[in-house]
Amino acid sequence: MLSAKSLFQEILDDDESFRLFCSIAASGESQGGWENGRIAALVPPGERGLAPKISRHGADEDKHGRIFNALMKKRGLEPVPVPADTDYTMLLERHGIGLAHDKLKGDQPLTVQDIVTYLAHSRVTEQRASEQMDLLRRHFADHPDLGRAVRMISHDEDNHLAYCHEELLRFASAGHGRAIQRTLRECALAEIRIYRDVSLAVMAHMGRVLGWPRAKSAVLTAGIHAVYAYERLGGWRRMVSLKMPERRDALGGPATAAPEFA
Question: In this model, does residue 88 exceed pLDDT 70?
């Protein structure tokens, strides 16, 4: 029976598909680390207290990239170039979600509105990351090779999501509520389209690597479109709600070290 666990197990068991999966994941995490690092460096003077948390966010993303590279290295694999149509982070940036890289490469301080935009974008994308890692944790937390990595990354993504909720609520109480809700909605509706397109691209590449029959690819494609239909009809709303998290000050300390994969 085709399930999320059986599908990922098939990808995990084949070196080429595993290498592609880890390469895509490592690239996205590393890109997120760079973005957060630049945002932390450009935080406006009135919000400098937020800089250590943004830096911690970036350090976590960098760590996740190293973890995926280490998982490949453990199997004697080298990263492969990431196909452009699977590059979730860059496609988000190209569609105007988050802060433009041209702005982040400069030296002008960001505005408070820029920080609100960054947090709203992160709230949406961290929802996706938290859900994906929760799925992997439920199925592979005890896996001898992936278990530690999945548990650590899942914990970090939950922290990132909690941090976004808490900081956005702080900005909402300071008078930015309407801008936050508008930005969240725009980000969520764009993200679900990009996530659909990236999912279709990833499945197409995996199908070629693993030699999936046409019928199997068709079922997976239909499933991806069904998820998008659900999200477009109302599932996106889970990405825009805000509530005070149980984990308060989730990024208030230093990033934890990446585990060793001997």
Answer: yes
